[in-house]
Amino acid sequence: MMIDILTQNLPVLIMIDWQQGFRDLDYWGQRNNPDAENNAARLLAHWRAHGGTVIHVQHGSTSPQSRLYPGQPGHDFEHFARPQNGEAVYGKNVNSGFIGTRLEADLRAADRTRLVICGISTDHCVNTTTRMAGNLGFDAILAADACFCFDRKLPDGRVFDAQLVHDVHLASLSGEFATILTTGQILSQVGHCD
């Protein structure tokens, strides 16, 4: 689906993998930032209220055991993040929203270079998509409090707390790949369509 060139005053809002399968903490492990959904919903409501371009990225796992396998309930979008009114959806089966999709081509065709990114998980699909956005020359803002991730375990048994994982990935993205802001900072700084 082509991006509407008429809604260019706001950056493009990219909602990454807001899918029901991530609710299953028995499967994924403990997470951080319980306010992530509310913050993402605030961004989404602002973009919709001001006629901004919203893009949804949806992960379709290739593993039938995954909570994100197409056809499973977990593949579905969270209720607050369901696409509306022709909002573009880009399906992927790897971490980056730019690989195997028309996302980059459609953004370039619409001459859209400014992005606001949020989603799941900070260290996987959000990180990879944000890094690629920066490498491809897009001006990316990552909404730090509108993402979350899970505890991570090394093969030697050491476990890294989800908040630590989240913070380290934000720090590694900051400056080189994206500007890191809170939802409140974004909403106070972005323009809106007239």
Q: What would a concise description of this structure say?
A:
It is built from 6 helices and 8 strands, in the order βααββαβαβββαβα.
Question: Pairing-aware structural class of the strands and helices?
Answer: alpha/beta
How large, in whole angstroms, is the Cα Rg? 16 Å
Question: Any low-confidence stretches, pLDDT <50, length ≥5?
Answer: 1-7
Main sheet: strands, sense, barrel: 6 strands, parallel
- Shape descriptor: globular
According to DSSP, the number of beta strands is 8
The run of helices and strands is EHHEEHEHEEEHEH
Strand content: 15-25%
Percentage of residues in helical conformation? 25-40%
Overall description:
With 194 residues, the chain is α/β, with parallel strands linked by helices. Helices cover 30% and strands 21% of the residues. The chain contains six helices and eight strands. The protein has helices spanning 25-28, 36-49, 103-109, 122-135, 162-173, 183-189, and strands at residues 12-16, 54-59, 88-92, 114-120, 139-148, 152-153, 159-160, 179-181. The strands form two sheets. Strands 3-2-1-4-5-8 form a six-stranded parallel beta sheet, sandwiched between helices. The longest helix is centred in the first third of the chain and has 14 residues, at 36-49. The radius of gyration is 16 Å and the shape is globular. It starts with 11 loop residues before the first strand and ends in a 5-residue tail after the last helix.
